[in-house]
Amino acid sequence: QNELYRMLIATAPDLVSVVNRRGVLKQKMAENTARVAALNTEYTRQVAALSAENLRQTAALDAKTRRKELESIETGGVKQSMVDASLSSIAKLRGKKRGIS
Description:
The protein is mostly helical and 101 residues long. Helices cover 94% and strands 0% of the residues.
């Protein structure tokens, strides 16, 4: 083992010349580029999903708000008709007290 270790140490400068440094860097850049593209795709998918959920919730909230406004208008209309009927009854009673029919 010792002899093998000494041979490897002696040939280390030659091993550096064997390693294609430029090729390794290009490969790493290609891997990083692919990873960035995958991350961008995932980001775009998540943004689309969140935007769709936001639109759904906004539409639901708008519908709920409109429904409450309509109920309020309808309830207000009922209340107003009750007020009108009460005023009419009061007017009739006053008229009867005064002798007016």
